């Protein structure tokens, strides 16, 4: 799009930033936070002047809460979010029933997920960034970007042109900011802008469904736009029906309502509002949408109950796109994340969650590469593993939407009882990546299937701290048993690999000494060979990239082996031993808790299994060593 007005100010930067993030929606903010905690300086811009007050996403799934532990924001989320305990089903104004939300305590410590407005999610990330002295540059809009090959002896870089209006903002009056087809707008007449040409090693595009970056680098966004229209309203209302919980209403006119309670008595109502008529102009439909019209639609669905709107915060209409970027990684320099990479219907509430998981997958890889710990051409293309997750999200949301449109909430009940949406799926805990450079099956041991494959999200487990045998029989401890802990509370830290040593019952035999010696030998070698140069700000006081947790089977509780006692006194992450009393944690990772070979699972910094090997003997440790030697570069050699 040619520019027609004069740019009063312009500048070209000659210094190269490590990472530029375009778009400070929740995904861009989360990426900025992760990179900051990884010690990587970032610049984050957004074309708007502030966080959008209109929250599209409301639901945060268990997997998202798990990863928030990495950034120390989880307490804020738990404090501000609300758990939804059940769903009520209505046929018009008649309550048909209520079902508890699917839970899965054994799969995650966050068994329910949370309801929290998207704007509040963004606020939490912004608040945390502020603590680190990082601020969003609002009012700056990305106009263009390209990868520039460096001259002789010069590194390649990304050159990005950004601008800001000298007065007011960049966003044109009346621009539809929800979802829809791509609409590249010309600059506004008579506005004066400042432009900058920015150099960065990497650019992360978190600029939403209409991503300017995606267009500028010509990455296709194949998929489809549905003809079906949806309406969304947030506000206060008077209604004879209780909207205190998550409510689904099926109207005899064929329309379906979804009602979510928000803070301060605000209610969100979403309506499936039928298909586009032949020749209908959606932009016009949007312009002509009135509060009265919306009120009449809802009133008709809940009839004979009364429905009256008292005040409106947001009313909009949107069409659904189901699209996924053909590639997430462009020339190993530009990465698409969040809605810039995938869009789909809100059914199942996965869009924002999927975007946050993209950010989590990418951040540590950039951190490692920028710290010279991995070759960019080896590690960065593995970010493409996120594409399959978007495909799954699109398929699931499409299935849920189609069923809901066809059957209303009957579809939800059917799905519930037929386990079509089980706890793992609903909570997005079943994320699993294909084999690639960092998800490496063992070279000779048989490749396990399903839950134990490399690439799967690290499973949860319940552990006990180890105490000597007396604690099991001690009457005092029997009355006051030691608190159990979750495996996931151990495997945090934005850049750390966690090595889980499943010792089965080897720690109760002469095997204990061997495990302890091998562990100390290998881990000390790794810690000295692979050091992270930037300062990590992730809650640990040390710089150790490798955290080791030894998990012993139940028989160890009756052992008084001196090595075992010594290992129980170690610091967490330095080979401290924990007891898997029920043997379930071993089982979750595919190892026998008694009379087994044991095994080692290497957990990537984003808590996915990168490598696993049966056995805890010297050969097993050598295999782990080979994994790290393949994945990492010995920067300081
Ligand atoms: C009705 C509805 C309900 C939803 N409910 C859920 C739910 O319950 N759960 C869920 O997980 N998801 C849900 N979603 C999806 C969710 O809202 C999106 O997936 C989420 O907003 C994506 O976040 P993002 O940061 O990638 O993009 P966005 O939130 O779109 O942020 C992109 C940012 O980039 C900025 N930007 C754009 N262009 C430029 C540029 N050229 N230069 C600089 N900045 C730019 C924008 O101003 C914006 O701040 C829902 C969506 C809709 C429409």
UniProtKB/TrEMBL annotation:
Top-level taxon of origin: Eukaryota
Alphabetical keyword list: FAD, Flavoprotein, Oxidoreductase
Domain Phenol hydroxylase-like C-terminal dimerisation: 485-633
Pfam families: FAD_binding_3, Phe_hydrox_dim
Species, as recorded: Linnemannia hyalina
Cited Gene3D superfamilies: 3.40.30.20, D-Amino Acid Oxidase, subunit A, domain 2, FAD/NAD(P)-binding domain
Protein name, as recorded: FAD-binding domain-containing protein
The family this protein is said to belong to: Belongs to the PheA/TfdB FAD monooxygenase family.
Domain spans labelled FAD-binding: 17-395
């Amino acid at each position: 799009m040619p520019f027609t007005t004069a740019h009063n100010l312009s500048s070209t930067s000659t210094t190269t930033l490590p990472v530029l993030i375009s778009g400070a929606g929740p995904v861009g903010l989360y990426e900025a936070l992760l990179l900051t905690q990884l010690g990587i300086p970032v610049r984050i811009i957004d074309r708007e002047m502030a966080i959008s007050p209109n929250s599209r996403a409301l639901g945060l799934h268990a997997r998202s809460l798990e990863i928030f532990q990495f950034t120390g924001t989880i307490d804020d989320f738990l404090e501000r979010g609300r758990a939804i305990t059940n769903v009520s089903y209505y046929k018009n104004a008649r309550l048909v029933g209520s079902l508890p939300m699917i839970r899965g305590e054994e799969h995650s410590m966050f068994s329910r997920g949370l309801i929290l407005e998207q704007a509040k999610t963004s606020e939490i990330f912004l608040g945390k960034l502020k603590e680190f002295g990082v601020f969003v540059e609002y009012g700056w809009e990305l106009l263009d970007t390209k990868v520039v090959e460096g001259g002789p002896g010069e590194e390649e870089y990304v050159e990005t042109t950004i601008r800001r209006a000298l007065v007011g903002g960049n966003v044109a009056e009346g621009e539809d900011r929800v979802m829809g087809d791509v609409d590249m707008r010309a600059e506004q007449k008579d506005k004066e802008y400042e432009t900058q040409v920015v150099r960065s090693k990497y650019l992360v595009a978190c600029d939403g469904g209409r991503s300017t970056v995606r267009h500028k680098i010509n990455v296709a966004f194949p998929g489809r736009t549905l003809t079906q229209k949806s309406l969304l309203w947030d506000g206060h209302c008077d209604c004879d029906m209780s909207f205190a919980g998550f409510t689904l209403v099926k109207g005899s006119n064929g329309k379906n309502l979804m009602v979510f309670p928000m803070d301060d008595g605000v209610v969100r109502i979403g309506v499936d509002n039928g298909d586009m008529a032949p020749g209908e102009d959606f932009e016009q439909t949007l312009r002509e949408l009135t509060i009265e019209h919306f009120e009449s639609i809802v009133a008709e669905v809940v009839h004979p109950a009364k429905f009256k709107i008292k005040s409106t915060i947001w009313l909009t209409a949107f069409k659904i796109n189901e699209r996924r970027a053909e590639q997430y990684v462009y020339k190993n320099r530009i990465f698409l994340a969040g809605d810039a990479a995938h869009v789909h219907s809100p059914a199942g509430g996965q869009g924002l969650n999927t975007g946050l998981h993209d950010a989590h997958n990418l951040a540590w890889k950039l951190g490692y590469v920028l710290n010279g710990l991995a070759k960019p051409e080896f590690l960065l293309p593995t970010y493409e593993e996120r594409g399959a997750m978007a495909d799954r999200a699109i398929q699931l949301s499409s299935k849920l939407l189609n069923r809901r449109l066809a059957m209303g909430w009957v579809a939800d009940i059917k799905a519930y009882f037929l386990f079509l949406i089980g706890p793992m799926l609903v909570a997005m805990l079943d994320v699993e990546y294909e084999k690639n450079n960092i998800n490496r099956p063992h070279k000779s041991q048989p490749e396990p299937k399903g839950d134990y494959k490399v690439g799967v999200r690290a499973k949860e487990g319940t552990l006990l701290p180890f105490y000597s045998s007396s604690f099991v029989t001690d009457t005092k401890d029997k009355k006051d048993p030691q608190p159990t802990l979750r495996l996931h509370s151990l495997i945090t830290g934005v850049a750390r690999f966690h090595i889980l040593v499943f010792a089965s019952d080897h720690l109760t035999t002469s095997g204990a000494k061997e495990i302890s010696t091998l562990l100390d030998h290998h881990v000390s070698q790794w810690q000295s060979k692979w050091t992270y140069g930037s300062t990590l700000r992730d809650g640990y006081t040390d710089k150790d990239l490798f955290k080791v947790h030894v998990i012993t089977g139940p028989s160890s509780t009756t052992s008084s082996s001196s090595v075992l006692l010594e290992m129980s006194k170690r610091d967490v992450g330095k080979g401290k031993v924990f007891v898997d009393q029920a043997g379930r944690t071993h089982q979750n990772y595919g190892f026998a808790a008694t009379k087994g070979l044991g095994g080692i699972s290497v957990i990537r910094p984003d808590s996915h299994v990168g490598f696993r090997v049966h056995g805890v003997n010297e050969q097993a440790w050598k295999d782990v060593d080979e994994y790290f030697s393949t994945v990492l570069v010995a920067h300081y050699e």
